[in-house]
User: Fold these one by one.
Assistant:
Number 1:
Amino acid sequence: MLNNCHYFAAMYAIVRSFLFLFSPEWVHYFSMNWLKKLCSIGFMHRYLQKRYRPATAEPVRFLNLQFPNRVGLAAGFDKNALYLKELAALGFGHVEVGTATPRPQAGNDKPRLFRLKRDRALINRMGFNNDGVEVIAARLAQFKLSPEAANLIIGGNIGKNKETPNEYAYMDYDKCFRSLHPVVDYFVVNVSSPNTPGLRELQEKESLRQILTHLQEINASMQIKRPLLLKIAPDLTDEQLAEVVDLSTEINLDGLVIANTTLNRSMLTDAGKIKAGDAGAGGLSGAPARQRSTDMIKLVAKQTNGKLPIIGVGGIFTKADAQEKHAAGAALVQVWTGFVYEGPGIVKKILN
């Protein structure tokens, strides 16, 4: 088994060196569409499941949901719910789709995704490009009818359209929440992306209160209540973080996702800073984001005595990285950049 793991890791390293010659965004869709083709062939789908699903993973009870394992895929990778069957075959216990907005939007101009290979990082300024919540909801409804749905928890990451003024943002979150409620298992409110102008202003306490309490009122009126979490930015100060936690406790929020991408570039190597400067604006993810995310998880766990559920995100490439997040106070972890650099075996690598 160990030799096989090393073999497939080496093979992916060769494939990655070739793929990294091309545009990151193009490679993303090229790779996932090829995976989709492979999974459409019955014996290949079974082979991929056998190869990549972790054999020893234990289910986890979290948010009153039964997760197949502790490792999920963060929002932004499968924005439009196009690859859920394929991601389930690779062993992910949950996938967060989105960020979904009420109306379709193209996102920011390309190029908008950049690799910092020496730092094992990415910079993105995608800008909530997605097909719109109605299309995403229809795809999720179709997926829920498939056999793979039994092995995958789906999170719905929701946001606002770029042109919606902040004072009306709660209406965009309302629309997304109602549309996705029948087809997702939990929700994450995204007010922390750095790539939609003014969005992070919604992390201010009263703006957050308006959005979250409104969604909770809708949730309370539903026959089935969906867990509601908030995704926060790593660029909050410790004092701002404490305020968010106070509000979360006050309004009985179900949990936090810690953390989104960062605007900070100070942790990059000199070569990384040069490349980041060439790339321009955008959120940084990957290995340089690991420590701040872990520190924030520790602070929240300490402030709440471990009573506020946490999903940890940021710089997870290995089993040790995931264990660090778990020890800090995160019940589940999500990968994104680590998936790009480590390849399709990352879930098995972390869990076995």
Number 2:
Amino acid sequence: MLPASQHEVPVNKFSFSKLVCILSAMCCLAAAIPSSAQTFDTLLSFDNSDGTEPQLPPVQGVDGNLYGVTFAGGLNGGGTVYKITPEGVFSTLYNFCSQPNCTDGDLPFDGVLAGSDGNLYGTTLEGGVNRSGTVFRLTLQGVLTPIYSFCSQANCADGASPNGILQATDGNFYGTTMTGAASGRGTIFKLTPQGAFTLLYIFSGSYDINESFSSLIQGTDGNFYGTTDLGGFSNFPDCRFYGCGTVFKITPKGNFTTLYNFCSRKDCVDGASPYWPDPGR
């Protein structure tokens, strides 16, 4: 992990974040094209002072304002949480790395969600007590509390660099990590709003390898679904060693099932390397 005084983004994470922003911009542009009667208003153009690399589209808080995160930039270079009114009045709600050694988190990833208690919740890729990412709670007044710091268990058995979270129907948070655990391939976890952590699953690094940047969604059956962009079984020559990705299901108790292996056909007509399901915010 980076020293607390530095905020250079690792090349692979930075490139992926830029890709997400480009794809999001393309989707927004496509949505604006069909009707000539539609008008487009730019509410804000980010610069480094108010953050850079905005993540998922903002969510609406209970107060009617919109809230989102930037992956980097801001006062300390570690990213921000911002607020913007429907009329376009912008303010920075929180600058990460405001606490010594970035114990409050560094590089927020995925976005924020509006919790059932009215607060905002999200994750950071780095920072925290162990510099391996956090889950945080943020009030609408800008008071931040890290409720979990990853790599708190021996040998990072709980995972590192979380991908984002969702709040399930039971009120708890569920998510995945990119790395950590014995395999180094990440985990699936459950976290109560009070910060009690439960490890649900460790990706093995073979047929269910996790290199996905993928958060979870909850189905109508109460189970959770996600993707990996590598791993699984494939007949496609280029995927025989690492696999070409999977769709998986996991129950709230941690029972894991691979539902589909991409590139199952030799011509790979079914696609490869799925990622980034929208958590349904």
